Every structure is written in structure tokens, then in C-alpha cells.
């Protein structure tokens, strides 16, 4: 299936400033033309995108793929064509062979592309450097500690220096180990009332200040993952304005939820970093609206047993690959952000952070495309998700926005049909 | 059928006191069941010239319908200010109906000790017994229509009177 | 958000926390407890209310004192009592909290009294019971993590009512490690629900949670200032692990700054009462002279505790 025409859709390509009704023509796995068919083009397949949006496939800056087949199927069902995978796999991605295997397995499965983050240190222990060169050759796009700390600041500095030598980017979650180690919720009103050990905002801001300073000194390209506070977003913005090579992202859940969503100790609201206050949420939303922060799903499938525990013992995280689109659309509506701008946060902006030329629909670009119906309503029930992770605070909610087709390299990998119950 | 108008409860207390008076020789103690029985017991105490304070019983903890109805919304403390062992007691209630309240009161009394005897004094007996209980002293027997109930009230001036209620 | 403690008719079916309970419900529990006080003074200290019912004491965190008072209370209601001390060894065997609950439900439990080190554990249990359709089983929280100890809060209120009659004209001070105290949180919610106009928390910043003002509490770091004109002083136990660490330098310094000595107590009203949930650390949070003095009502608190627990169990078991 080589030549594909996607017709009658609203074409939105944020990077190239396109937002108009136009057809898209694909040949040999790449975008052949926009608007009118190329000379002699005979479509082997036509996808009717009437009433739908046609845009670049989403690039998710953070998704855990515990059960890789199910999760990559979930990704394309959610319109996500590239997934950045943190190194906290089991075993951690600290050996080139492991990264190699992961990349090949994903290629065999043939759904979403996997962009692994290699472990910065062996075992993610924060002590000895992993073989960054070998990992990079095996396909790692950057290096990370997932959400594990590097406690020793000297080791951290040396690791960043080493990475900077070779131009490798380092992605770190800013959280001071000591201030966060006993906490399970944001150190705010809700935690005080419910008797939950708190993680103060300073755990994030102190870590950001440290990392930014080290980025200045070492010249490393730094990406801060999963910001959770308004103060943290402000520090990032200041650093960028001073010319530090630092970027940041926020999980879509932190744009919608706050500490109040813990309610009566609902473990679906347990996240790492924790959900913070309403004013933090507002500040993060503003930062995302202004383009300071890219948006990701932070997809973390957690089995039911690991959530059916007291709040402090439950595993943090929520399923997200299939919710990234509807929750981003919902955020855009509530924050008054235009659709192209909102889509930029999950396409062009992540691509820029990765230094990749994906995330766009220019002629000649690889045809990773998402077609979605922005008005389609659906109910979030476990059966509606392809992911093995059914853990979400939005269970039972009516969501708007559903993928009808998804193409990777010009090959259709998802048709948007409902999940088959027999599988 | 229920006679209308309802009889004068105060006059009935006088009748009840007259019936009990011949038996005062063995110094019975009066125990009133909250709240109607307690009012009547207090009235009897005055009419019979008894010095000893009356006992007050709340049967909420001894009822047999806890599983269906739960704990009664208003529980008052039981107060028995005298020893029960070896005493002759007169249990006082306003209306005798199924007999279950009397059974509960007896069970509660026996947790205090072993009385020499227990007699039952009620102002009204409306029949429809579900247990083998009979009053010793009772000035008024009646039947009620389905859904009707007989309620004793105490006015601000302390006067007792009857009221008929419909479900 | 639907309060999981109340059933569809707004009746109390579990006691998980005092927070969110209407004032009438709290007052009803105190009134009912008064009747049970009388039962405890008879020779036969039993009523047949819970006869044939099984009360399971599930203590995931050890506590002989609290467990014993619950056991006495349940037995005075004629219930059958089964004590389960589920220490760390059982959970190390891999059985989850909810698996344990399911097993016990199959053994015809009617009421679970639960103490757990994780805040929120009793809510998890109550939700699970609702989910599996067992709304005939009731949960009473005997203390969860730092979150709540509602029966202690209620017996503290009973104590205050016994000595002071009215709540609406009182100044109440809670002194000590409120950050880690479930008793303090329950007391605060109970006091504000019952309309106490001035609730004070006194302690060093390291032992006070943030945002206490949002719970209706005035914060003091100076004991003398905080105790001025108080009607009720509730002293909290300072646990050993808090001393000699980053929170406090030593028991000695704590006693000098926050220990309730006779001269500090003199700053409160002359008829102020001194309460303590127990067990006391003499010479750490409280001077022996005060603990044994006429203003201390610590032993009566224990008696009231049995009556309050009888009231709580009979009310929830009947709904």
C-alpha cells in the first residue's frame, strides 16, 4: 500500500503554519504533496477525512512500555507515532545491547517508533557512568535517570560534562532526593489535612536551580521532565531567557488535576511528581500555552493490584497514550489555546526538543500522520483502552477527540475501530 | 371500635393508683419505661405518696429489632436508684401492645439483679399481643383500626393526655 | 464528593474520620455514649445489642491499649470479638490488605475495627466492601497513619463536655507533635465541628503541619502565650523517634520549651482541664505534678473511651 490520499480533512501542521482544508498525498512513505495530487499520482487507497483533522503523528516525550506490544498498539490508537521511553525498564537500559533489542523489537512490531533514553548511570544508581557512546550507537536519543536521583552533585556534574563532550542531551526530572524521599503528596493543604507526608515545591526548585547552574557550567543540552510547580516553570523560563540550553515538559495530567483530586485517598491521583495546588496547575497551563513547556502523557501502566493499596503504598502514575489527544484538546479549550498551538505542544515542540525533523507534514517529510475527529465523544471505560494500563483518574469520564487513522512511514497502523473484545 | 372522644389520661392515672394502693404493703418500687411510662410512674408516685424515687428504664439496648431498625435515634440513660435484688417491682408503661417492650424491660431489669416479683401497670391495653404478657393493673382496654396508634403526651403544665395518630 | 461514611439515607455506616460529619451526628454519638456510661456502672456491664455479631479487631499497627478498650466495648455489647494482630510478618508473606479483608468477610465478620500505619487504609477497605456489595459490614477506624483517630477525638469531646458542658465558649489548646498526630487532626475537626471558637496549636515549626489556619486553627510557637486563658489543654505524646533528630534536638530542650509544668499551666484558666491521649512521657511533655494533679482528667478519659466506642459500634452496626 504505497500511494495514499487523505482527502477532505482540515490539515494542521503547526511547524509550517498550515491550517486549512487540504488533501494530503503520500508516496514511498513520505509526504508527496499537499493540496493537489502530484503529477501522475494514482491513489491506491483513499482515506476520507471529512470532519476530521489531519496532523503530524504525536511525539510523546515520556511513555513506559511495560507490555510492549499492547502499549505500542495503544500508542497508535492514540495517534502517537513516536514514543520516548525512559530508561527505568527492567533491567534498566544501561547496556547498549538492551537498547538495541528494544529498538529492534519495536521495529518488528511495526507500530509506533520507539526512541529510547539511555541510562545516564549504571543501574540508574547515580554513581558510575553508563556507556553513553555505545547506547547512542544502539539508538538512544538522549540520557536520563528516569525519576531516580543522582545524589552526589559532583558525580552529576561529571556525568553532564561527559555527555556535553559528545553533544548528548541529558533529560532529568528535577527533584531533590532528600526533600522528596519521604513524601507521597504535595506538601500543601490536602496533605496536611489527610496526614500524608509532603514533598515541598522547593524539592523541585532547588533541583532546577542546581541543574541549570550545572548546565551553564558544562554546556550540556538539558531537558527537564515533568515539571509540577509554577515556581519551577518560572525558573525554567528565566534560565531560557538567559540563554541556557534548557527545555522542559509537563505531563498532561498536571495540566488538569491538583492535590484536591486525591479526595478520599484516591490512589489514582498518586503521581510522581505529585499533583500540586490549583495555582501551580494554572501556572503550568500558562507556561504550556506560551510554549515554554511541551506536553507529554507520562504514560505509566499500573496493574489494578498496585493501585488497590493505601495511598502511600500505591504505585504512582496513570495510563496516558490514548488520553493524550482528548486531554490536550480539553486543556486547549479550557485554557483558550488555539488548536494548532495545542497540537504544536505534542508534535513540533517535542520534535524540536529531540532535535528531530519529525513532527511536521512538509513535502519530503516521513509520513507519520494522525487523523482524528475532534468532535467524537467516547466514554473512558477499561474496555475502550488497548493499553494494559487501565489506571486513570478519569475513569468513566466522557472524553472528546478520537483517532480515526494513524500512519507510520506512510503505512496505516490503526483504523480507529473500537477495541476487539475477543483479543 | 375506638370510643371518641379519648378518655382523660389524668383520671385514668387516678384509677390506676386506686388499683395499686391495696398492694403497697410490700413496698413495691416503681420503674417507668421512657418516656410515657416514666411520666405515669412519676404521677403514681405522687398519688400513692411514695417517698422512694422511681426507676427509669430505656429499653433501646434490649430491643429485638436492632438488625432491622438499628439503634433508636434517641437513647436516654437508664437509672435504677435502688437495689433490685429481692424487691417487688411495678413496671409502668403507657400502652401495652405486642408485649415486646415489656420483654425488653424485664431482660434489662434482670441484668440489675433478681427481683422478688415484677407486676405490670399500664394505662391502656390495645391488644394484638405477640408474646405471652399480661398487665396486672390496667384501667382501659381498647382496639385500634389498622394504621392507628395511641400516643401519650405531656403538656407544658405537666398534664397527661391521649392523642390518636395515623400512620 | 459522596462521604463514604454515610449511607444513602445519610446515616453513619462507617466511622472513618470526624471530618465531614454533620454536627448532629457527632452530638448524637456523644449523647448515646452517655447512656453507655451508665451501663458501665452496673454489676452486669452488658447489653445484648450486638449479640451474635462478630467484631474483628484488625491491628496492622500494634497497640495493646486501644485494642483492649475496643475489645471491652465490643464485649459489653455482647459481641463476639476476634483479635488479629497482623504484624509486618503477615504482609511480608504477600497477602494484600484487601485479600485479608476478603478472607475475613468469608468468616462472617460484621464489623472491622482497623488500625493501620498508612493514612487512608480504612477508606480503601470501606470502598472495597461497597464494591463487593457487602454494605452489611461496617468499618471503625482505630487510627490510620497520621490521618485520623476518630474514636479518640470523640472521647476527647465527651471529656470536654463532661467537665465544661458547653463548647461554644471555649479556648482549647493542643500542644506537641501535631504534624505526626492523628489524634490532633481528629481533635481539631471535632472541636471546629462542635463550634469551639478558639482552637490553638502550640509547638515548634518542625512539629506543626502547614496550612493549619485552613483547618480553623491558630498557631503558636510559644507555650506561655498559647496557654493564656485556655479552658482545655490537650497534651500530645512525643514519640521517641522524633527526638535526637532533625525535628528536635533532645527531650530536655523540648521539656524546657513545651513541657506542661505547674507554672505554665497556671497561665491557663484556674479551672482549666488537662487531657492526654496516653501513654504519657513524664518529664518530656508533661510534669508529673501536673499529670497527677487535680486538673488532669487523663484517667476518666479512659472510662469515657469505652462508652464512646460502645456508642460508635452500636450506631454503625445498626445502619
The interface involving the most residues is between: A-C, 22 and 28 residues
**In DSSP terms, counting alpha (H) and pi (I) runs of 4 or more, how many helices of chain C?**
12
Specify the oligomeric state: heterotrimer
Radius of gyration of chain C, in angstroms, nearest whole number? 19 Å
Q: How many E strands of chain A? A: 20
Uncertain residue ranges of chain A: none
Q: What is the number of beta strands of chain C?
A: 9
Helix content of chain A: 25-40%
Percent of residues in β-strands of chain A: 15-25%
Largest pleated sheet of chain C: 5 strands, parallel
- Give the overall average pLDDT of chain A: 95
Give the % helix of chain C.
25-40%
Strand percent estimate of chain C: 5-15%
Q: What's the N-to-C terminus distance of chain A?
A: 26 Å
Written account of the structure:
Chain A has 423 residues and is α/β, with parallel strands linked by helices. Chain A is built from 13 helices and 20 strands. Chain A has an eight-stranded parallel β-sheet, with helices on both faces. In chain A, strands 3-2-7-18-19-20 form a six-stranded mixed β-sheet, covered by helices on one side. In chain A, helix 4 links the parallel strand 11 and strand 12 (169-172). In chain A, helix 7 (202-218) runs parallel beside helix 8 (230-241) and helix 8 runs parallel beside helix 9 (278-289). The mean pLDDT of chain A is 95. Chain B is of the alpha/beta class and 167 residues long. Chain B has helices at residues 9-20, 36-48, 66-69, 100-110; strands at residues 29-33, 55-57, 88-96, 117-125, 148-154, 160-166. In chain B, helix 2 (36-48) links the parallel strand 1 and strand 2. In chain B, helix 1 crosses helix 2. Chain B is globular, with a radius of gyration of 15 Å. Chain C has 319 residues and is of the alpha/beta class. Helix content of chain C is 39%, strand content 14%. Chain C has helices at residues 23-39, 64-76, 88-92, 97-105, 121-131, 150-164, 182-193, 223-227, 251-258, 262-265, 288-291, 298-317, and strands at 54-59, 80-85, 111-116, 138-144, 171-175, 198-202, 218-220, 232-235, 273-275. In chain C, the strands form two sheets. Chain C has a five-stranded parallel β-sheet. A four-stranded parallel β-sheet of chain C has the order 2-1-3-4, with helices on both faces. In chain C, helix 1 packs across helix 12. At the A-C interface, helix 6 of A face helix 5 of C.
Amino acid at each position: 500500500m504505497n500511494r495514499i490520499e487523505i482527502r477532505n480533512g482540515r490539515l494542521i501542521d503547526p511547524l509550517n503554519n498550515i491550517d486549512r482544508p487540504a488533501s494530503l498525498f503520500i508516496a514511498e512513505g513520505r509526504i508527496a504533496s499537499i493540496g493537489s495530487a502530484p503529477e501522475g499520482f494514482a491513489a491506491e487507497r483513499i482515506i476520507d477525512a471529512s470532519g476530521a483533522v489531519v496532523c503530524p503523528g504525536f511525539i510523546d516525550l515520556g511513555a513506559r512500555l511495560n507490555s510492549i506490544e499492547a502499549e505500542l498498539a495503544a500508542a497508535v490508537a492514540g495517534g502517537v507515532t513516536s514514543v520516548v521511553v525512559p530508561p527505568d525498564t527492567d533491567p534498566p537500559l544501561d547496556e547498549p545491547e538492551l537498547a538495541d533489542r528494544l529498538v529492534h523489537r519495536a521495529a518488528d512490531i511495526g507500530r509506533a517508533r520507539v526512541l529510547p533514553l539511555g541510562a545516564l548511570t549504571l543501574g540508574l544508581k547515580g554513581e558510575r557512568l553508563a556507556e553513553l557512546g555505545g547506547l547512542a550507537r544502539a539508538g538512544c536519543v538522549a540520557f536520563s535517570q528516569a525519576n531516580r536521583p543522582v545524589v552526589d552533585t559532583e558525580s552529576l556534574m561529571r556525568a553532564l560534562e561527559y555527555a556535553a563532550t559528545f553533544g548528548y542531551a541529558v533529560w532529568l526530572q528535577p527533584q531533590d532526593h532528600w526533600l522528596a524521599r519521604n513524601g507521597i503528596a504535595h506538601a500543601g493543604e490536602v496533605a496536611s489535612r489527610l496526614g500524608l507526608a509532603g514533598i515541598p515545591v522547593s524539592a523541585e526548585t532547588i533541583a532546577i536551580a542546581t541543574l541549570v547552574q550545572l548546565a551553564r557550567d558544562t554546556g550540556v543540552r538539558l531537558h527537564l521532565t515533568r515539571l509540577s510547580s509554577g515556581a519551577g516553570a518560572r525558573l525554567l523560563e528565566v534560565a531560557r531567557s538567559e540563554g541556557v540550553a534548557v527545555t522542559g515538559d509537563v505531563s498532561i495530567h498536571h495540566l488538569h488535576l491538583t492535590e484536591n483530586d486525591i479526595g478520599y485517598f484516591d490512589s489514582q491521583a498518586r503521581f510522581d511528581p505529585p499533583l500540586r495546588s490549583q495555582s501551580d496547575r494554572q501556572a503550568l497551563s500558562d507556561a504550556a500555552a506560551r510554549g515554554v513547556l511541551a506536553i507529554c502523557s507520562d504514560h505509566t501502566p499500573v496493574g489494578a493490584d498496585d493501585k488497590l493499596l493505601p495511598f502511600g503504598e500505591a504505585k504512582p502514575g496513570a495510563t496516558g497514550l490514548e488520553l493524550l489527544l482528548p486531554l490536550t484538546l480539553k486543556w486547549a479549550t479550557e485554557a483558550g489555546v488555539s488548536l494548532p498551538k495545542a497540537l504544536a505542544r505534542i508534535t513540533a515542540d517535542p520534535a524540536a526538543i529531540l532535535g528531530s525533523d519529525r513532527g511536521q507534514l512538509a513535502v519530503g517529510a516521513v509520513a507519520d500522520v494522525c487523523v482524528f475527529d475532534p468532535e467524537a465523544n467516547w466514554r473512558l471505560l477499561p474496555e475502550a483502552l488497548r493499553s494494559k494500563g487501565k489506571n486513570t483518574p478519569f475513569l468513566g469520564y466522557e472524553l472528546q477527540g478520537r483517532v480515526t487513522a494513524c500512519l507510520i512511514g506512510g503505512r496505516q497502523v490503526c483504523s480507529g475501530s473500537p477495541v476487539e473484545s475477543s483479543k | 371500635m375506638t370510643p371518641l372522644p379519648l378518655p382523660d389520661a389524668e383520671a385514668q392515672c387516678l384509677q390506676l393508683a386506686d388499683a395499686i394502693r391495696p398492694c403497697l404493703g410490700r413496698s413495691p418500687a416503681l420503674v417507668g419505661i421512657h418516656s410515657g411510662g416514666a411520666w405515669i410512674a412519676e404521677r403514681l408516685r405522687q398519688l400513692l405518696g411514695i417517698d422512694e424515687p422511681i426507676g427509669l428504664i430505656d429499653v433501646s439496648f434490649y430491643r429485638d429489632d436492632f438488625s432491622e431498625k438499628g439503634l433508636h435515634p434517641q437513647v436516654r440513660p437508664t437509672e435504677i436508684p435502688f437495689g433490685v435484688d429481692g424487691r417487688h417491682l411495678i413496671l409502668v408503661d403507657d400502652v401495652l401492645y405486642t408485649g415486646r417492650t415489656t420483654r425488653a424491660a424485664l431482660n434489662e431489669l434482670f441484668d440489675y439483679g433478681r427481683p422478688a416479683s415484677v407486676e405490670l401497670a399500664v394505662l391502656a391495653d390495645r391488644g394484638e399481643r405477640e408474646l405471652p404478657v399480661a398487665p396486672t393493673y390496667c384501667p382501659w382496654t381498647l382496639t385500634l383500626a389498622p394504621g392507628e396508634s395511641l400516643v401519650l403526651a405531656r403538656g407544658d403544665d405537666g398534664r397527661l393526655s391521649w392523642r390518636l395518630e395515623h400512620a | 464528593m459522596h462521604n463514604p461514611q454515610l449511607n444513602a439515607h445519610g446515616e453513619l455506616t462507617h466511622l472513618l474520620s470526624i471530618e465531614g460529619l454533620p454536627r448532629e451526628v457527632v452530638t448524637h454519638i456523644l449523647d448515646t455514649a452517655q447512656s453507655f456510661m451508665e451501663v458501665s456502672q452496673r454489676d452486669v456491664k452488658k447489653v445484648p445489642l450486638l449479640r451474635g455479631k462478630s467484631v474483628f479487631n484488625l491491628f496492622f499497627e500494634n497497640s495493646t491499649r486501644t485494642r483492649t478498650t475496643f475489645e471491652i466495648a465490643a464485649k459489653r455489647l455482647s459481641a463476639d470479638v476476634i483479635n488479629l494482630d497482623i504484624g509486618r510478618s503477615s504482609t511480608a508473606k504477600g497477602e494484600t490488605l484487601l485479600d485479608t479483608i476478603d478472607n475475613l468477610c468469608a468468616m462472617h465478620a460484621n464489623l472491622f475495627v482497623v488500625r493501620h500505619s498508612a493514612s487512608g487504609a480504612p477508606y480503601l477497605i470501606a470502598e472495597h466492601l461497597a464494591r463487593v456489595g457487602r454494605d452489611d459490614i461496617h468499618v471503625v477506624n482505630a487510627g490510620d497513619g497520621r490521618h485520623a483517630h476518630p474514636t479518640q477525638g470523640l472521647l476527647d469531646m465527651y471529656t470536654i463536655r463532661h467537665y465544661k458542658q458547653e463548647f461554644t465558649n471555649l479556648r482549647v489548646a493542643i500542644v506537641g507533635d501535631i504534624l505526626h498526630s492523628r489524634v490532633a487532626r481528629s481533635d481539631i475537626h471535632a472541636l471546629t465541628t462542635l463550634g469551639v471558637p478558639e482552637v490553638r496549636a502550640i509547638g515548634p515549626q518542625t512539629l506543626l503541619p502547614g496550612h493549619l489556619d485552613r483547618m480553623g486553627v491558630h498557631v503558636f510557637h510559644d507555650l506561655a502565650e498559647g496557654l493564656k486563658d485556655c479552658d482545655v489543654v490537650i497534651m500530645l505524646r512525643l514519640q521517641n523517634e522524633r527526638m535526637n533528630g532533625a525535628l528536635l534536638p533532645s527531650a530536655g530542650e523540648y521539656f524546657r520549651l513545651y513541657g506542661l509544668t505547674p507554672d505554665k499551666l497556671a497561665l491557663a484558666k484556674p479551672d482549666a482541664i488537662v487531657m492526654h491521649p496516653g501513654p504519657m512521657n513524664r518529664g518530656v511533655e508533661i510534669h508529673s505534678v501536673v499529670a497527677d494533679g487535680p486538673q488532669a482528667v487523663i484517667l476518666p478519659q479512659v472510662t469515657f473511651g469505652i462508652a464512646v466506642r460502645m456508642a460508635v459500634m452500636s450506631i454503625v452496626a445498626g445502619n
